[in-house]
Design brief:
The complex is a heterodimer of chains A (about 575) and B (about 200).
Chain A: H1 16-48, E1 55-63, E2 72-75, H2 79-88, E3 99-100, E4 115-116, E5 118-119, H3 124-127, E6 141-144, H4 149-156, E7 160-167, H5 195-204, H6 215-227, E8 235-237, E9 253-254, E10 281-282, E11 294-295, H7 317-329, H8 336-359, H9 370-377, H10 389-402, E12 411-419, H11 435-456, E13 463-469, E14 492-498, E15 506-508, E16 532-533, H12 534-545, H13 549-555, H14 568-573
Parallel strand pairs in A: 1-12, 1-13, 7-15, 7-16, 8-9, 8-12, 10-11
Antiparallel strand pairs in A: 2-6, 3-4, 5-6, 7-14, 13-14
Helix pairs in contact in A: 1-6, 4-11, 6-13, 9-11, 10-11
Chain B: H1 2-6, H2 8-32, H3 34-46, E1 60-61, E2 69-70, H4 74-82, H5 90-108, H6 116-124, E3 143-144, E4 147-148, E5 157-162, E6 165-170, E7 183-185
Antiparallel strand pairs in B: 1-2, 3-4, 5-6, 6-7
Classes of the chains: A alpha/beta (about 575), B alpha+beta (about 200).
Chain lengths: ~575, ~200
């Protein structure tokens, strides 16, 4: 169309304009090629990292903002304990309550006599490292919330550690109490103290950019090719949609916490109403490769054969419906949209079958079932129903790991969630199941039961569970009577558990518990400026999971704002060497 | 005569260049002419203050009386005057507070963060010494001990659920939060704030 500006119409003799147009097009093409090569390099490095081992990562999200100040608590005589009592007021948990003897409805299974939630970290001096923002606490002991004694025992056994004062940080400028209000907005995580914003930032670890993917989803994208040959995604959520697992090529698989996979709506469980033999369920894979206990509805019937009599379908209306649906699903379509829709349905049913097979593996080497470890820690009468939702979520995760061979994936990323942590009122009131103590009780028992289940099948060294939450809560109460609670804070304590965790230690830096000073970001409510960025908390976990340094820079691009690398020396100097990579 | 038919582009470019030169000369004359500049200055002086709905921070000025007061956008002042007025309902009070938060958000790129005292400091421009600009009158009767209070004197309760949704709660006549006579704007979703969690 540039006839006005051409000296000649002979295209075989390109002028400067032709050259520019063609070179620009070529450069655009080159850009995509370069990007593709970069992605291939990442995928290739994932493949090179090996796929013979199995590892599972579990994100245990505490929705609403856990009061970490009452999960990891200074105990006995210490300056930290003095600050704790001074600041917490009505929310303070007395030092005498960490040793207790359950009775009546609190007669916990497997425990007789006195129980203690006190812990003795092997590295109190590192946790109280008197640099930068710490108060110079030089000694002291800790305890966990009394209801957290199941994980206190894990801590003491070396299976669980704490990472202290973790939170969202941008990292472009150092945040202090002195500059908090004058710093540019871009230098602080946007919408601090807001639930959904902080949830997204915790689950993406990229507070200074619009959300696109979660850090778990990024890992799934990178490792999917090498570690996810099966039909099921690397990511499985037991708690619905979440930001952590949002991915571009490896979308999460969502399932409920009941542990059952509904084969097809309207046919009851296990096709009992539609199939002659419920042990013979349909399989939607290749007709020539039908697994044991399956038959292929895709196999064409013989000439003149009765579609109900000569197959596994019952001669009932349910059998007719199932057969009709499966015939529809076996149809060929000319339209791409119809084909894609059909493929989605078929794939969903195939995945359901895989997950159903995985969930069917419940026996352990010791003869017990995985479920028994959960009923042990959730005895009859303690909760109603006996297994609360979070216990069921962890139970299904345990069964998915036990049945991993049916799924073929050598990496799995699970997301479970316990809600209700937004304890603005009556925080210290409640019972086994309600209030902050009830939540701590559920969390601790679910984690402990999961640990026992994994130990029973010899997989504890192959799993890593970590906690995350919207934010910590204010150190000071919002009321002075027992109806008081706490409000939205910032940096808080996270725990990490697994066979590879260097347990019985407190990592990061325990905060200075002085309100209106120290690391209280603003005001006088005790909202701690984090010492550890979420990037720093997640990076060793990603490394343990099999990500290379190059992949970690993709997953957590802001990490280098906080530390140069993930070398053992760097992690040790930051008191962040909470994983044994050997 | 054959040249223009084969090479019209050169003439077209030349014509456009002439137009460009004329435009440059005209703009230079317009911007430097004393008469035109004087007319623009007079027009600016005769205009009223900035549009009240434009969320731009106002700066402290020296008043006629000599005492330091804060010049506030007239629209913001009118909104503040309506707060706690006898003809205003408690629900309208909450809406006014929400509107001030919204104005701050549009001007600053995000809601003020923190609890009541932090939000009050942000709206009144008292977050740090020497802070310029504010949206809410610092001497308003609704500001007590650095907090925005309701018409019964209890601090409003702010609960940020997201960047676009913030519950604002008044303790009501009994001055006790989270009781039946509370007035609530934008209640929190289930499981957050004091809204009961949904059944699993």
């Amino acid at each position: 169309m540039n006839i006005f500006l051409r000296k000649t119409e002979d295209r075989s003799k390109p002028n400067r304009r032709d050259f520019m147009v063609r070179s620009t097009c070529a450069s655009l093409g080159l850009t995509s090629v370069v990007n593709t090569i970069a992605q291939l390099r990442l995928v290739g490095s994932a493949a090179a990292s090996g796929a013979s081992d199995y590892k599972a990562l579990v994100c245990f999200f505490l929705n609403g903002g856990n009061d970490g100040n009452n999960l990891l608590i200074p105990s006995e005589t210490s300056s930290a304990r003095t600050d704790y009592d001074t600041g917490r007021g009505v929310l303070s948990i007395p030092d005498t309550s960490f040793d207790f003897t359950p009775s009546g409805s609190q007669a916990y299974f497997g425990q007789s006599g006195q129980i203690s939630s006190r812990i003795i970290p092997q590295n109190p001096q590192e946790a109280y490292n008197p640099t930068s923002r710490t108060a110079g606490y030089t000694a002291g002991k800790f305890a966990l919330h009394p209801m957290a004694y199941p994980i206190a025992q894990m801590f003491e056994a070396g299976d669980l550690a704490f990472v202290s004062n973790v939170g969202t940080l941008v990292g472009t400028q150092n945040v202090t109490r002195a500059n908090f209000n004058t710093l540019p907005t871009a230098a602080k995580p946007p919408q601090l103290f807001s639930h959904s914003d902080q949830q997204v930032q915790w689950q993406s670890s990229l507070p200074d950019q619009p959300f696109s993917r979660g850090w778990g989803g990024k890992i799934a994208d990178l490792l999917g090719a090498a570690h996810g040959p099966g039909d099921l995604s690397l990511s499985v959520s037991l708690a619905g949609v979440n930001s952590f697992q949002v991915a571009s090529s490896e979308p999460a698989y969502f399932m409920n916490s009941s542990g059952s996979v509904s084969p097809l709506s309207g046919f009851g469980t296990a096709y009992a109403d539609a199939l002659r033999s419920t042990a013979m369920q349909p399989h939607y894979g290749s007709p020539s490769n039908v697994p044991s206990g399956k038959y292929s509805p895709l196999t064409p019937l013989g000439s003149g054969a009765d579609p109900l009599i000569n197959t596994n379908y019952r001669h009932t209306s349910a059998g007719w419906r199932l057969r009709a649906i499966e015939q529809i699903m076996a149809m060929q379509h000319a339209a791409l949209f119809d084909t894609e829709y059909l493929d989605s349905s078929t794939n969903a049913r195939v995945t359901e079958g895989l997950v159903g097979n995985a969930l069917g593996v419940t026996a352990t080497a010791t003869g017990s079932t995985l479920d028994s470890h959960f009923t042990n820690w959730f005895p009859t009468g303690l909760f109603n129903p006996q297994l609360p939702d979070i216990a069921n979520q962890m139970r299904v995760v345990a069964r998915m790991i036990a049945g991993r061979s049916a799924l073929s994936n050598t990496r799995q990323i699970f997301f479970v969630q316990l809600g209700g942590w937004d304890t603005h009122t009556s925080q210290t009131q409640g019972n086994n199941a309600q209030g902050h103590q009830g939540l701590v009780n559920q969390m601790s028992r679910a984690v402990r039961a999961f640990k026992d289940a994994m130990t029973a099948i010899g997989m504890w060294n192959n799993v890593l569970v970590f906690s995350a939450s919207d934010f910590n809560r204010t150190f000071t109460p919002n009321k002075s009577d027992t109806t008081g609670g706490s409000d939205h804070g910032w940096g808080g304590h996270a725990w990490v558990a697994g066979g590879s965790v260097r347990g019985r230690r407190i990592f990061g830096k325990f905060p200075n518990l002085t309100v209106n000073g120290g690391i209280d970001c603003t005001g006088n409510r005790g909202r701690w400026i984090p010492n550890v960025a979420t990037d720093q908390f997640y990076a060793p976990i990603a490394k343990w999971f099999g990500c290379t340094d190059e992949q970690i820079s993709t997953v957590l691009p802001n990490l280098t704002r906080f530390q140069a690398d993930l070398s053992p020396a760097t992690l040790a100097s930051l008191n962040m060497d909470f994983i044994n990579f050997a | 005569m054959l040249l223009p038919a084969k090479r019209p582009a050169s003439y077209l470019l030349g014509f456009l260049l002439i137009i460009l030169v004329v435009l440059v000369v005209w703009m230079d004359h317009t911007l430097t002419s004393p008469e035109i500049q004087d007319a623009i200055r007079k027009k600016r002086e005769s205009q009223p203050a900035q549009s009240p709905v434009d969320p731009v921070m106002t700066n402290d000025v020296q008043p006629r009386g000599g005492a330091a007061v804060n010049a506030l956008d007239p629209m913001h002042q009118a909104m503040a005057d309506e707060l706690h007025a006898e003809t205003t309902t408690p629900e309208r009070d909450l809406e006014i507070i929400r509107d001030f938060v919204s104005i701050y958000s549009r001007a600053s790129g995000g809601n003020p963060v923190g609890a009541n005292a932090d939000i009050t400091a942000a709206l009144t421009g008292t977050q740090y010494p020497g802070q310029k600009g504010h949206f809410f009158p610092r001497g308003h009767s609704a500001v007590r001990s650095g907090q925005l209070v309701d018409r019964w004197g209890s601090p409003y309760w702010f609960h940020p659920n997201s960047s676009s949704q913030m519950e604002i709660r008044s303790a009501g006549p009994d001055r006790q939060l989270f009781t039946g006579d509370d007035h609530v704007l934008n209640p929190s979703p289930s499981g957050l704030g004091v809204t009961a969690p949904a059944a699993p």
